[in-house]
Amino acid sequence: MEILAFGVTADEKPLLERAFAGEHEVRCLDVFLSEDTAPIAAGYEIVSSSVNADLGARVLNTLSAGGTKMIAQRSTGFNNIDLDVARRLNMTVGRVSYYSPYAVAEFAWTLAMAVNRKVVRAAIRTRDFDFRLNGLMGRDFHGRTAGILGTGKIGEAFARIAHGFGMGLLGWDLAPNPACLELGMTYVDKEELLARSDLISLHVPLLESTHHLIDAAALKAMRDDAILVNSSRGGLIDTAALVDELRAGRFTGIGLDVYEAEAGVFFLDKSLEAVEDDTLARLVTFPHVVMTSHQAYYTADAVGQIIETTVRNVADYLAGRRSENTLVPSP
Asked: Residue 14 contacts by C-beta under 8 Å, 6 or more apart in sequence?
């Protein structure tokens, strides 16, 4: 059987082809699954999608009409998939429920360190042979407080690194993580965490209940010199409200690997095009904002695990099995 995979990067392609070798052929496309590209999948029973794919009602109906019966999403998040429509169309949907939490946690710390120590600005200056230190002063993380919103596997990994730095730990979640409690984490309500933390990192999924978890009120509750990092989902932050606070001169630094309107922008080369998103255009101009293009997961270890799970999800579908990765089972 030939599988059609959308949104495959150049680094990912040989790994994906190698993983399916001997079992199935895989056709890799660098374009993302959308209303415009969905017709390409006509005749493919199994389609693999990436995190920024559009799997809304229109796309799912197009795929179903073309004969697609299984969606193998190569990500943990699935807020881009209309699961109710998939059920109505009798389409099986699988995702990757787990991959290396260290990839994301370590990258969140990369962003935190970059904004704290002004690494991007310093590197640009050095390239221009400007070796002054003016404006590059950071702070020790040792002895300060890290507030972690979401203390699952990734939040726990982030907390372990913070503990290694000698930071105090505050957590917010539906239930305490015993491993985090052993590290000395104190669980508090969101408002207290925001008010007391020097560094705030987001590690919760994007759900209806967490959309704009960091809204205008939450931003105002944060300390003026706080650092905010988001390597989870862009919709957790009200970006327009964040820009307003940045314009007011608040926060030591903001590290963002995700953006709430990133679909159709991230993973693409937009360097020769006019920027239509005024909020994004303004956001990247602030000198104390470091923004990357949803790459926190992008290590050989994590991507390898994602691909291995995708191969298993396909095998489970063909065998009529369910697993913890099954979002919509076979009819």
From this structure: none
CA distances from 156 to 102, 109, 159 (A): 9, 13, 5
The amino acid sitting at 209 is: S
Could you tell me the fold of the domain covering 2-99+300-328? Rossmann fold (3.40.50)
Tell me, rounded to whole angstroms, the distance of Cα 74 from its chain centroid.
12
Tell me whether domains 2-99+300-328 and 101-291 share a fold: yes
Q: Are 227 and 255 in contact (CB under 8 A)?
A: yes
The CB density around residue 61, as the number of other CB atoms within 10 Å, is 15
232 touches 200 (CB < 8 A): no
pLDDT digits (tens, 9 = 90+) for 185-227: 999 999 999 999 999 999 999 999 999 999 999 999 999 999 9
Domain ranges of the chain: 2-99+300-328, 101-291
Determine whether domain 101-291 maps to CATH 3.90.1150.10. no
* Angle at 206 (CA atoms; ends 205, 211), nearest 5 degrees: 135
Distance CA 317, CA 249 (A): 52
Dihedral angle sign, alpha carbons of residues 33, 35, 41, 44: positive
- Beta pairing class for 289-291 and 92-94: unpaired
Q: Beta strands of 50-198 (E only): which ranges?
A: 70-73, 92-94, 145-149, 168-172, 186-187
State the Cα–Cα distance between residues 43 and 23, nearest whole angstrom. 19
d(CA 305, CA 323): 16
Sign of CA dihedral 106, 111, 112, 117: positive
Could you give the CA distance from residue 246 to residue 242 in angstroms, rounded to a whole number?
6
In the chain, beta strands by DSSP E: 2-5, 25-28, 46-49, 70-73, 92-94, 145-149, 168-172, 186-187, 199-202, 227-230, 253-256, 289-291, 326-328
Write out the catalytic residue numbers: 233, 262, 294
Q: Structure pTM?
A: 0.91
List 254's β-bridge partners, or say none. Answer: 228, 289
The pLDDT tens digits of the residues spanning 63-99 come to: 999 999 999 999 988 888 999 999 999 999 999 998 9
